[in-house]
């Protein structure tokens, strides 16, 4: 089964494809099929993921899965949330993973409460107007390190520590990360939904 991934993030594609492979599902990056991105005007992960999935399904005629993920920092009242990818731009910095991490470390300097959560919400639709979208949420508690550690992964991975493991996501190999990450949790939940809803004989 071919499903378009409503994202142009190659790191996200690689992570999801490796986990979906046992289902016989082939994920295709939307950027390989069309140009442009869906509007994401909403304040919640699920609404933005649904917008992206419907947009990709409409553009391609294929079923679509979208991920909207973000960092919810306790000391910031749950922000940056849905604006995680653009976090650094509000401080006059150019959008990049490295700048996002720098901005986060700067804004948490001297802050004792470094607790946060990484949230991944996956939404799947069979068609643009699918009335029964599949919704899977993965959430993992983390603490923000005071400096970058590790060289794997992407995004905020170098500063996201799982307290019980004492490691950042960037210090984990990809398979181990998938076992413990927010996206790993949402993907396993989505796989169960796909098996029972879209792939059932």
UniProtKB/TrEMBL annotation:
Gene Ontology annotations for the cellular component aspect, listed alphabetically: cytosol
Listed Pfam families: Ham1p_like
Organismal lineage: Bacteria, Pseudomonadati, Pseudomonadota, Betaproteobacteria, Burkholderiales
Sequence similarity: Belongs to the HAM1 NTPase family.
Record's subunit section: Homodimer.
Catalysed transformations (reactions): dITP + H2O = dIMP + diphosphate + H(+); XTP + H2O = XMP + diphosphate + H(+); ITP + H2O = IMP + diphosphate + H(+)
Cofactor binding comment, as recorded: Binds 1 Mg(2+) ion per subunit.
Name of the protein in its database record: dITP/XTP pyrophosphatase
Keyword check for rRNA-binding: no
């Amino acid at each position: 089964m071919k499903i378009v991934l409503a994202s142009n993030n190659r790191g996200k594609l690689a992570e999801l494809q490796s986990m979906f492979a046992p289902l016989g599902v082939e994920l295709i990056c939307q950027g390989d099929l069309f140009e442009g991105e869906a509007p994401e005007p909403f304040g919640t992960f699920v609404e933005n993921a649904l917008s992206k999935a419907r947009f990709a399904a409409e553009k391609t005629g294929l079923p679509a899965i979208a991920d909207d993920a973000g960092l919810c920092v306790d000391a910031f009242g749950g922000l940056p949330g849905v604006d995680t990818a653009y976090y650094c731009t509000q401080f006059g910095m150019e959008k990049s993973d490295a700048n996002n991490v720098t901005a986060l470390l700067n804004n948490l300097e001297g802050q004792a409460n470094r607790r946060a959560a990484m949230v991944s919400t996956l939404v799947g639709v069979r068609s643009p107007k699918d009335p029964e979208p599949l919704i899977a949420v993965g959430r993992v508690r983390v603490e923000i390190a005071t400096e970058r550690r590790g060289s794997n992964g992407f995004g905020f991975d170098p500063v996201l520590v799982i307290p019980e493991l004492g490691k950042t996501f960037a210090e984990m190999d990809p398979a181990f990360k998938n076992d413990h990450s927010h996206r790993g949790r949402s993907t396993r939940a989505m796989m169960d939904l796909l098996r029972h809803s879209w792939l059932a004989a």
